[in-house]
Design a protein that fits this description.
HSP40/DNAj peptide-binding domain, about 160 residues, six-stranded mixed sheet, alpha+beta, Alpha-Beta Plaits
Length: about 160
């Protein structure tokens, strides 16, 4: 089994590829198979989904490139930027993972959300494509610190812009 424990610094070369859905790219511990058929074990830091094109470093020195698999998506466009922002607001309110493009949004196919967007006046089309959603403003995973637990007492990355963080 090819054991992967870290991300490579240089994405320019690789020996194998992992074709993965967004759900699988979001897991830090995973047993899967490379395109070559070789079994792969991922043991990575939690909270940082793998991105399309990223290269990982295996314990034996080999390098593996991550490839985003085509998935069933909804592609949303609107008549103007205000309406697109409105659609993004309603999707964000539902904690939907979004890929944001120039004048469009994409997310995993969902009939209920498609109907909501149509009622808001958006154009919605189904397509199959790699899905690369935004990571989120604070990096890492989704955290709530209702009780002021020590584990959640950190300065958000968003507020450290320009300070080398």
């Amino acid at each position: 089994m090819l054991v992967i424990t870290k991300r490579a610094d240089d994405p320019s070369h690789w020996n194998a590829e992992l074709v993965m859905s967004f759900e699988l790219r979001s897991k830090s511990r995973l047993r899967t198979t490379a395109s070559s058929g070789e079994e792969v074990g991922l043991f990575l830091e939690a909270g940082q989904p793998l991105r399309h094109g990223e290269v990982l470093q295996a314990e034996d020195g080999r390098r593996v490139r991550v490839v985003a698999a085509p998935e069933a998506l909804l592609h949303v466009s609107c008549a103007n930027p205000r309406e697109l922002c409105r659609a993004a607001y309603h999707l964000g309110n539902r904690h939907v993972h979004l890929e944001v493009g120039e004048g469009w949004l994409r997310f995993l196919d969902d009939d209920v959300l498609a109907q909501m967007l149509l009622q808001l006046g958006a154009s919605v089309e189904r397509l199959s494509a790699p899905f690369n959603p935004e990571h989120g403003a604070y990096g890492g995973g989704h955290h709530h610190s209702h009780g002021k637990e020590a584990a959640f007492q950190y300065a958000p990355k968003l507020h450290q812009y320009g300070q080398g963080a």
